[in-house]
Amino acid sequence: MPTQQPLDKRINYRLNLIAHGWSAVVAAKMRGKYRLNAAAMKILSVIAHYQPISPSELGTRTATDSPKIARAVGTLVDQGLVERLPDPHDGRRAVLSVTPKGARIHADIDDLANTMQAKITSELTEAERKSLYAILDKLEAGVHRQLRG
């Protein structure tokens, strides 16, 4: 049986705290400006990067459950930031794309996220940054192997 580790030594716990805090800072700075919560901002960002994207692929890329995706997409569609169109390859499905207004808002949020990343990682050397990304790639691959296995 593995030895019990304190929470601060559990990678999933630490990564979750970092991700939640990071998202909370971005959301707090942008919420008043765009009336979007953190989940809607994350969904908008993923749609912008992978459009056109189906809601099911959106769930996979965000690790978010269907009800949260549906609420966030509903908000984004209602605000004219995202459009839902028939999938040209499968008429039974819908795909999501950002509108020009959504693209402008996404660019603003993305600029803040990039600025935050630069500030948060500013104390890392270039070698440490490269190592961080290599470690994250390995951790992500390990998680995917566990999900498949």
TrEMBL record:
This protein's record includes keyword Transcription regulation: yes
Stored InterPro entries: HTH_MarR-typ, MarR/SlyA-like, WH-like_DNA-bd_sf, WH_DNA-bd_sf
A GO MF label: DNA-binding transcription factor activity
All copies of domain HTH marR-type, residue ranges: 8-141
Keywords: DNA-binding, Transcription, Transcription regulation
Xref: PROSITE patterns: HTH_MARR_2
Biological process (GO), any one: response to stress
Pfam families for this protein: MarR_2
Endpoints of the signal sequence: none
Protein name stated in the entry: Winged helix-turn-helix transcriptional regulator
